[in-house]
Each structure stands twice: as structure tokens, then as C-alpha cells.
From TrEMBL:
Entry protein name: Cobalt ECF transporter T component CbiQ
Subcellular location as annotated: Cell membrane
Organism field: Streptomyces albidocamelliae
Record field: transmembrane: 43-60, 72-89, 109-130, 233-252
Keyword tRNA-binding listed: no
Amino acid sequence: MGAGHAHRLYRHGHSPVHALPPHTKLAAAFLFVVVVVSTPREAMWAFAVYAVLLGCVAHRARVPGGFLLKRLLIEVPFVAFAVLMPFVAEGERVHVLGMSLSVSGLWGAWNVLAKGTLGVAASVLLAATTELRELLLGLQRLKLPPLLVQIASFMIRYGDVITDEMRRMRIARESRGFEARGVRHWGVLAKSAGALFIRSYERGERVHLAMVSRGYAGSMPVIDEVTASRAQWSHALALPFAALAVCLLGWVL
């Protein structure tokens, strides 16, 4: 985990949110999502306040609204599922614009949309202000099992290696005049997938042998020791604590 590794969700910046240690941001995002999920669905105003809190964080992190909204498209499948709930759920029904909708289905759809959108937005903000390498260091600092951190680290880096190999194979096919236009070309694509698997497997073995020859014995050396001051923890946990106050009011009111 010594080399830097940028990803598409990350937005380079020098904001106060970018400067926070990664494990404080991971803990804040996790606690915020837990609070949001614990909020009663009937307290609609609470979810609006959560959205405002995330908007303040995005403003503080200098993350544009368009950047955030574009990344929220990842939840489209969940939106489609939520839209179907009022039509398929059972129980008391109401008529809206000539359509018969289930009351429990409407509440369920609202619950999924509100909590899912806020959770995805919090995750996007975390990814936009924290590099992958820092996320891994943060997980390590939070005492996640070392083996899981290593698996995540290798998966991220090896995923880029395989993607680059796929790109080179595609360029090689196109330089020879190949263009997939139908079922009759599936055989060529299947052979390419097989070749990619073999190359990836062989490269994995070579990487493992290289690591063993350099003294790898099941654990990665800690290159950067990430620490956080009390003030940094206070700044990071301001979001989940504010959300917790809103959640408690949502249960009381």
C-alpha cells in the first residue's frame, strides 16, 4: 500500500475535509449511515435535515453538486425497485392519479429512497475526499482484520492490471480489423476472455513469487502510521452527532 492510487470517484482538493485522517472519515460516514437507517420513516423532515447536513459537508469539501448528483446515478436499480413497491405490496390502498397504490408500499418506497440516497451520498462524499490508499490505511487503523485489508488492496491494484490488459487485447484485435458485430464473433471474444484469464493467473503467480522473494510472510509492512488528534476527531464526528440529535427528535416528536 505504499504507492498512491487515484480513482474516478476521488476529487483532488485541499479542503478541510480532504485533510482529515481517513479513519476519522470512515468512522463518521459509518455512524452517519447507522443514524439515518435508525430514523423512523415517518419523520420526513429529519431526512431533509440530513440532506442539508450532507450539503454542508459537500460545500466544506468543495465538491460540486453536479459531481455528487452524477455519482448518485449508481442507485438507479434501487430507485426502480422502490418505484415498483407501491404497485406490488399488499394492504390498505389509496388512489393517486387513477392508480391504486398500497399505503405500506408507498411508505416502503419512501424509506428505501430516502435512506438509500443519503447513504450513497455519504459514501460518494467519502470517496470524493479520500484516496483509495488512504481508505486502506484508514481501515487498517480501525483494526479491520489485516487479511481483509490485504485482499482489498490486492483486488484494487490487480483490477487495474486486468483492465489495462483488456484494453491492450482490444487494441490488438482492432488493429487486425476485428469488430464484434454479432453472435458469430462471440467465439473470438470467448477465446480472448480465456487468454485474459490465463495471463492474469500467470501474472498473479509471478507477483506472489516476487513478494515471497522479498520477504513477504503474510502481512504487509506499515509504511505510514496514520494518527488523528482530538480536534480532528471532533471535526469528523460533528456530522454523525448532529444527525444523532435529529434522529432522537424524530423519535420524540
